[in-house]
Amino acid sequence: MLRNRNFGMMVVSLFISRAGDTFTFLALAIQVDSLYSDPKQSAGALASVLIAFALPQLVFGLFAGTLVDRWDRRRTMVVADLARAALIPGFLFLRSPADVPWAMALAFTASSFGAFFYPARTALLPAVVEADELMQANSWMQVGETFSRLAGPILAGVVIGTWGSRAAFLVDSVSFLGSGLFLVAIRGVRTRAFDAMEGSITSPLEDLRAGIRFAFGSRLLQGITVGLVLALLGIGGVDVLIVPFTRFAFHAAPEALGLLLTAQGVGMVAGGLLAGVLARKLSPLAISMGSMLVLGAVMAGFGMAPTYLVGLLLIPWAGLALAPLNASLQTMLQQGVPSNMLGRAGALTEMASTTAQLASMGGAGGMAALVGLRPTFVLGGALIALGALAMGGLLRGRAPSDVPAVSVAQAGG
User: How many domains is the chain partitioned into structurally?
Assistant: First the structure.
């Protein structure tokens, strides 16, 4: 697998880009916070910018996936990287509260290119590796992404501590350039859905309708989406509640949170490596369901953990389950959806994931206020387990080959 040059280019591109993202998010948090003396105003402004980053996936996601299925996927990713490299330095002009709307607009614009990038990456991978290598490939992608998330904040902290938060935006811009260069180096693979698209008589709107019809008719896509939505409704609130939980449930110091996140990251690296081993013995569906059940049990157990030490011992198991879960869901999608529908299928799952995550983050505080922090974590774990059972019920007995390989022209006609 690692001897596959093109796949190596994709993994390195992912690592550079993801690590660079952490520079921008950390620098933005510092930069926005420095503009306000009131912590509530600071939190509100930062939340607005982060929501602006998330919105494009909801606004453009499915249409972006439609265009990805018509365009050259590698070229789409390179253009998206170059555009974001040009846009990110715009955050250097965030100097007062009056500039926050500008930062929101910039975040929305930069993230709009990401709405094209991620479906294109999902759709390109099956052209880079063999079909029976997809699970291992997705596992290595998870390992690369996890390493970037572990290394990124450390490197960002060094850069910001030495040269200030503004330097971090320039580093992220350079990281997008580096990512694009590695993608350009991918050679000898088919980067379009099929050559006939050059002369396609269907319009993007017709292709969009075809994608929607395909989604409603594909049990595979429905099963993956339902499982993802339920799981992310359970997981999403963790990002919001983990800080107060560490403080009020465990009575731990603020720096204890960093150790929890590091432990989860280590678990994700191990999980990425484990996923490749599991792929030789289990189907992607079995790995997905098992991972979700483990994750649900860990989240509920974390909510009931009597001490910080117990929570610290549990949290790596969440990371161990997350990496195989992400890899197996991607593999099911790539194995079971026709190449000319992969952009739209990937965009649809991204849209569903973003919607569920935002809903969970938005409702987590209210749920914690209503029933308490610990019961909220237990309910989240139950939702994740429910997602596993729902997905299994929808997909039981269905193999990827059960999905009809329709073309855009046929579906759109």
Answer: 2
**162 and 265, same domain (yes or no):** no
Q: Do 366 and 219 reside in the same domain of the chain? A: yes
Q: What's the CA dihedral at 143, 144, 145, 148 to 10 degrees?
A: 120
pLDDT tens-digit map of 308-358: 999 999 999 999 999 999 999 999 999 999 888 888 898 888 888 888 888
8 A C-beta contact, residue 329 and residue 50: no
Six-digit token string for 212:
């929607």
How many CB atoms within 10 Å of residue 202?
Answer: 19
Per-residue pLDDT tens over the stretch 118-161: 899 999 999 999 988 999 999 989 888 888 878 887 888 888 88
Position 411 confidence tier, pLDDT thresholds 50, 70, 90:
very low
Question: Could you tell me the pTM of the whole model?
Answer: 0.81
316: which residues sit within 8 A by CB, 6+ positions away? Answer: 263, 264, 266, 267, 270
Domain that holds residue 309: 202-396+405-413
Residues 219 and 114 placed together within one structural domain of the fold: no
- The verdict on residue 233 lying in a domain is yes
Cα 174-272-55 angle, rounded to 5 deg:
50
Check residue 70 and report its DSSP letter: H
